Amino acid sequence: MKLQDILKDVLDDEIGEPQSVEVIVTELKEAEEKISPGDVYVDKRTRETFLVLTPLTTKFGTKWEGVEFDFNPRYGEPFISAGLSTTVAEPKAFEGYKKSKLTGKQKKAIQKMLKDPENLDQLDRAGSSVRDIERYIR
């Protein structure tokens, strides 16, 4: 059974004039696609993980700043690939990315990275707050 069919059944039972199913479905999709700080996106091509930290409002639209991690390098330990990265404007901000959640293993790897003085220096030079990263990985 499709979501549209379920919504039609629910709306038929309501008193008054219901909204069209298409309007409700688009509202649900928009609510699902909203970007907020702490969201995690994985690049489909390079498999790097982007942790969203703060929004930037520009005349072109909303851009997002975040930190990129590489959990599957070809060799060596996982590392921070970008101390601070900015996306393009909102409609195409995360095109080519898939929304996901951090696993426990990834959270532990990030905590381990945040203890390394080299990574802390990289984040400090980029202007990223370690406190924000720790807040969003919980």
Low-confidence sequence ranges: none
Query: How helix-rich are the residues, as a percent range?
Result: 25-40%
How many helices? The count is 5
Number of domains: 2
Strand content: 25-35%
Shape: elongated
The first-to-last residue Cα distance is 36 Å
Order of helices and strands: HHEEEEEHHH
- Give the biggest sheet: 5 strands, antiparallel
Structural class of the secondary elements?
Answer: alpha+beta
Please give the number of β-strands: 5
**Widest beta sheet: strand line-up:** 4-3-2-1-5
> What value does the Rg take, in angstroms?
19 Å
Average the pLDDT over all residues and give the rounded result. Answer: 79
Give an overview in words.
- This protein is an alpha+beta fold and about 140 residues long.
- The chain folds into two domains: about 5-35, no CATH class; about 40-135, no CATH class.
- It contains five helices and five strands, in the order H-H-E-E-E-E-E-H-H-H.
- Strands 4-3-2-1-5 form a five-stranded antiparallel beta sheet.
- Strand 1 (about 40-45) and strand 2 (about 50-60) form a beta hairpin.
- Helix 1 (about 5-15) packs across helix 2 (about 20-35).
- The longest helix has 13 residues, at about 20-35.
- The chain is elongated.
- The two termini are about 35 Å apart.
- The mean pLDDT is about 80.
